[in-house]
Amino acid sequence: MGQTMRDTTGALSIVGSASALISRNVTVAGHRTSVRLEPAMWVALQEICRRERCSLHEVCTQIAARRQPGASLTAAIRVFIMAYFRAAATEDGHNKA
């Protein structure tokens, strides 16, 4: 299993294999559920929570409420993470960071 490390600039990187899934329990709209994600996805999700000053449970509840019909929560979380950092990578996103 890979480890997430910060380099001297504070940037996150994955060392070793990042393909193993990590299962964690989250509460979505008051219901406990299990989510399995790659270590890098958990790191990204925690970073989003820190930036937005929200708990993991709050962010997952928001994602669940907005996911496409029939989409799994895990898939919706991955799409959300990609969209979040894609938006942050725009010029406007850099200015707001």
Q: Shape, please?
A: globular
Main sheet makeup: 2 strands, antiparallel
Strand order of the biggest β-sheet: 1-2
What's the overall average pLDDT, rounded?
Answer: 86
Order of helices and strands: EEEEHHHH
Strand content: 15-25%
Q: Tell me the helix content.
A: 40-55%
Number of helices: 4
Low-confidence stretches are none
Helices and strands, with pairings:
Blueprint: E1 3-6, E2 12-15, E3 22-28, E4 31-37, H1 39-52, H2 56-66, H3 73-88, H4 91-96
Antiparallel strand pairs: 1-2, 3-4
Helix pairs in contact: 1-3
Q: How would you describe this structure in keywords?
A:
48% helix; 23% strand; alpha+beta; two-stranded antiparallel sheet
How would you describe the overall organization of this protein?
The chain is an alpha+beta fold and 97 residues long. The chain is 48% helix and 23% strand. The protein is built from four helices and four strands; from the N terminus they run E-E-E-E-H-H-H-H. It has helices at 39-52, 56-66, 73-88, 91-96, and strands at residues 3-6, 12-15, 22-28, 31-37. The strands form two sheets. It has a two-stranded antiparallel ribbon with strand order 1-2. Strand 1 and strand 2 (12-15) form a beta hairpin. Helix 1 (39-52) packs across helix 3 (73-88). It is globular, with a radius of gyration of 14 Å. The relative contact order is 0.13.
